[in-house]
Records
---
Amino acid sequence: MTVSECRAEDVPVLVASAAALFAEDGGRHDPFMDTGWPAREGHSYYAGLVEDPQCLCLLADGGAGHLIGRLRRPDPLRPDAVTAVLESMRVAPERRREGIGGALVDRFLAWARERGASEMSVQAYAQNAGALAFYRAHGFRPFLVALTRT
Ligand SMILES: CC(C)(COP(=O)(O)OP(=O)(O)OC[C@H]1O[C@@H](n2cnc3c(N)ncnc32)[C@H](O)[C@@H]1OP(=O)(O)O)[C@@H](O)C(=O)NCCC(=O)NCCS
């Protein structure tokens, strides 16, 4: 299995994986999610991330998985924290439980540490039990809990 950084020509593959994530995760767990956003806006958004030195865009095996990370701007309320956010990740259903997600997260953690991150964070839907178990297996623990009601 190979993990590589996205180049400009890989953006359509990244958009396709992100669109599938929107459909599977946001579309299933958030009634307000606009699952058409990646098709409309995704190309310019993800092309911008690929060029952004504060962002990491990874593909595994040419598109079987993706991960997007970002160094957050300094927060004056938490001056000693340097936070790297795992913004998005997905592995194609037929390739899950082979260690691809783990390889992507390991690359993200190394990238974040190289850039001085003192914490790494990720958000997941409370109902996405698989993702929560995956992140827990990689050392992430609940810190803030978002509560919502309609
Ligand atoms: C979450 C996801 C990225 C994990 O990718 P993956 O390549 O299957 O993960 P790995 O094979 O590296 O799994 C590593 C470990 O994480 C845990 N894990 C992964 N998926 C799990 C699941 N569905 N249920 C329980 N534990 C899980 C296990 O401990 C696993 O080790 P094991 O297979 O030896 O038991 C993948 O399931 C996925 O793309 N899900 C749909 C999209 C999604 O939810 N993305 C995250 C949005 S926040």
Note: The chain has a mean pLDDT of 98.
---
Amino acid sequence: MVLKLYAAPIARGSSGVVAFVLAEKQIPFELIVVDMSANDHKTAEFLAMHPFGQVPVINDDGFILYEGRAICRYPAEKYADQGTPLLPPTLEGRALVEQAASIEYANFYPAIAKLGMELVANPRRGLPVNQVVVTQALAELSTTLDVYDTILGKQKFLAGDQFTLADVFHLIAAPRLASEGVDILTTKGPNLARWWNEVISRLAWVRLQAEGIKSTPSW
Ligand SMILES: N[C@@H](CCC(=O)N[C@@H](CS)C(=O)NCC(=O)O)C(=O)O
């Protein structure tokens, strides 16, 4: 049975990276569009799959999984030899991916999420931007990105010279900020800019941004 992806069709956030990983791994899937404006993610049927009532969710032949980063890890492991290898073959290589992924979740994403809330979500809802939060989040992000620039001066990607899930997870929220004019990822350092441009230029990502998430992807 083909894997089912429950998501909105826009390739953003965790849904976007899950669709990206499925494309990189060349895994066919059926998109089940969740109409969040109709609260389809809060129905009893949906909550039985995802008790927090969020997208994305996958159903792989009866195996149900939610949380974007967890979902990405699953096809990367299950289809290790298919499509782009997103995890290294050695235990040490995978440990380095977990190290970089942990920094993404603990240091990078929280600052990006605060900026996203203040600079994207709040203005859209007609709420004022809290400049104190913005300044603080930019300072936090800046500290992380300075270290990234040093790391990326010694290796191509965040977990070594291979493109891995640790790089992929950075696509969850940062591209949206860039589209709102916060271009810190391309201005903070040359190694950082080189890495980020490479990540956002992946063919599967470019196609997803152009076409949205579709059941029958063009890859
Ligand atoms: N940590 C979750 C976040 C998922 C998430 O925030 N999904 C949003 C859409 S991008 C959602 O479903 N929001 C509806 C809600 O929280 O009620 C993940 O990575 O999957």
Note: The chain has two domains: 3-85+204-211, 91-202.
